[in-house]
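User: I want to check something. If I give you two sequences, will you return the structure for each one separately, not as a complex?

Assistant: Yes, each is folded on its own. Here is the first sequence with its structure:
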Amino acid sequence: MVEADWLPVPGGSGWHSVVLADAADAERPNTVLLRSAHAVLLVDPAGGEQRTRQIMAYLDGCGDRPVLGLLTHCHHDHWAGAGALWQRVDHWIAHEQTAAALAVAASETHARVWSGVDGDAPMVEVSLFRAVDRDGGVRHVELDRQCSIRVESQALGQGRQQLWLNGQPLCSAIALPGHTPDSVAWRIGGWLLLGDALATGPGLLLADGWSSEAQLDSLTALLGVLDEGGIEACWPGHGGRLDADECRAVVTGLRHTLGQSGQQSARAARELRLDHAFGLLEEAAVLLEQADESDQAAQAAQALHTLAAQLLLSGQPQPSAVQRLLQHLRVAATEGGDDRPLARAVRLLEAHALLLRGVTEHTPRAVDLSALLQRLARLLPLHLDLPPTVVRVRGARHRLEDGLHSLCEALVAGGAETVRISLECFGPQVALLIHAAAVGKAALPSEERLALLNHQLRLDGGHLEGAEDGQDGGIRVVLAAVG
């Protein structure tokens, strides 16, 4: 690791950072290292042996500065699997309820807390948002001869605390309960490290302690933080960087979604999420049946059909089983193009794992829809009627491209000789008009496949409207325009 990897934090008054970020991944959170002349901060260090080696290499170059570990919440994917690091961290700082949950996780007498695992866990020495902080004021925590922490609290109706190390400003903590009761965002200069504050329902299937009401309040509070100004970048716990305007757009959309889901029964919300999870498993299984890598893909497809059937019958997902399959399939998926059935199946399984935790790729990037369709036309018999200008829509490119790929494949399999696609732009939206040209009547994709596509489109503000003008094989896909 080189010194040049450390980049200045905007508005950070001498802070520099390294961000270890992956595509949205339920197993590997974004880990952020920050250093100043006075300390090193390590936020959510987890992700397995390779990530641990990376972090250790950066810490080796930080000299004898005290290393402070910051946790955004208690879920195990934000701290577990990094045991070798714990000896390098001098002191851990987290919400008081995170400290309590990790103490239970480390106990041999408890098999499950919110974090979902047992065994060794970090020991939090500086607990935030305690009852004694409720009325505001200052609290001092003497850790060792090198470290004295001062915690300045606003009245907890404001949900913010300022931390100082040996008289030097360190960071701010912002309580954002909802995803879990102990969720905290950390602000260092112009950066806001959000953890899973943007991971929301309806129907978080594996997240004990989730509260839609608390999360709606926290999203409103987060908008207030953004409106105060000074935020240059927001880092969710999983996925890509958001600038302040992008984060504001995501938060506004999530507040709208939560407000709508609050009008549904909890049972209806859960069934909606289960239906989405089931569809991802089944579609991944179908793609694996098309893969020609080895018997491994066929065996994985059969296993996924079984898991999907169990999910349908019991309503209980099996995340550990899916993760085991993913570990094997990811290796094979690294070879060849990312449009192969195996690579697409792996992305669907990763989306399934994220869905169970309420995590999605929120980064609302502008996708060049024209270029996306032209890529698909090299793989499938598509006839494109596109405008001469570039058309951009909001979304995660692979999610949108994989969904349209599967839709057009299904039309061809249903008897279409050619799939005609045209675009219609109207205000803030773009409509894809998809029609199967065939001798006779081409079969539409199954209801399950259309439902899955609609679930995926809604993650980026789009939706499926179904048949266009009653034409056989006609489908209208509505997307959010950009620019």
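And separately, the second sequence with its own structure:
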Amino acid sequence: MGGKKFGILLVLAAAAGMIFLFYGFWGRLPAGAAVGGTDISGLTPAEAVQKLRRGLTEEMKDKSLSVVVDGKKYLFRYPELNVRADLVRAVAAAGRGTDVPLPKRYYLTDGENALRRIADDFYKRSENASLHFDASANEPFSYTAERSGRVLDGRALSSAVSASLAGGLEEVSLSSRRVPARVTVAKLRERTALLSRFSTKFNAAAAGRAQNIALAGEKLNGAVVGAGEHFSFNARVGERTRANGFCEAPVIFEGDFVSGVGGGVCQASTTLYNAALLAGMRVTEYHPHSLSVGYVEPSFDAMVSGKSADLAFVNGTSFPVYILCRVRGGEIIVSFYGEKSAFTYRRESVVTGRIDPPAPVYAEGGARVRAAKEGLTSEGYLVRLRGGTAVERKRIRRDRYAAVGAVLAPPATEEEPSLSGEEEDANARKSRFFAKKFPFWQTNCQENLTNDCKIRVEVLKCEGKNKPAARLRLSCGAAAAAAFCEVTYDRCQGSQDEAGDEGIRRLSLPPV
């Protein structure tokens, strides 16, 4: 290809040389020689070229190209607007004594840069909407509105200017176009929609346990789990130590409630676990308690312990999820926010069997008394719904919670007192009598006990021989007048005569 161009240039050069050589010998161009209406007869070829060039220059002074974009006008004049013409070829053609046309091609001397400057004038970058997440605020999400951009199509501008230059330098008129932001506030609101909310209740008067739940909730609050990211409860909350602010409170250990640092944290992990399920998270690790717990249905608890037992899940959505945790008024509430889904979820707990506790034993060697606790087997199901209609019901776990036998206070060794003897203090008689006859009443509701709790037994009435009715009341702390749990006992433990001639009538025992 390069050889052909070189050959054409040689031919043109040779033709021009012959013209000048010929006319150099014979003088000037013949009569009638003209180019584009300009008379060049009688001139040498060189003079003719110069005359034509001067004519083109004068002509260009009256020429202009107008480009209008969104009402803004850009005007190009000589020398920014210029012209190209093959004057040598035209003079050679006119050497036969004829008037020949002069093809012209207009152009912008700095065309590419000139058009880029026009396009840059109308370029405005769009700005996506943004959000700010403040987990401590009443309204945790705030948004900054998006801003649309503008752009002038560079190809369209170049094509229109080229057409004008090739034609009659007609005015070029174009408009920039609006470029919307990719992320709008509306989209961000869809990506921060409420996905789930789950809560459990606890005894706020149990100070140590309540403090541990509140501290775990504080550490969970504000967590952000990116798309595809893994969340670990233990990594987020940290070790349950005194140095990290956790207190001693009852924990389940080897089928019993014992004092341990961090007691109550499992209620925070359980609440998070259920909120995660309802938000559509993929749970990758959970552990049931050895005993069933009272703050959530069977097969929906999530025990955590040191480094050996964690609660973990993966955010399988395309956008981050945001976790809010509020602890107030004896309630912990966990909420998940994220991309709005077409699906919602419902939990179903099914108890499949019950396990009787073993026979009670008496405490020995300083062992702590405790109440019997029924065991059970259960299954947990997660139901997926679309528009309120169930589309899938999936069993997600099976669990077995152990039964616990009662440990009773040692039986009284003294002879059973007669409740009718006026010479003995009535309260002392009642205490000794019920301590022997109803020792298990002293240990019922053991999970709710704290250091400042007191237990009171009330025998309401005797509805007939061998059918007394009784109630145990447990009251704690500032709420000493409240009954946190009540147990009814309907088995006869002695005759009416042992309670006096009038039968049992609201016998109130002192604290035991």
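Because they were folded independently, the notes below concern the second chain alone. Residues 192-407 form one domain. The CA atoms of residues 238 and 244 lie 8 Å apart.
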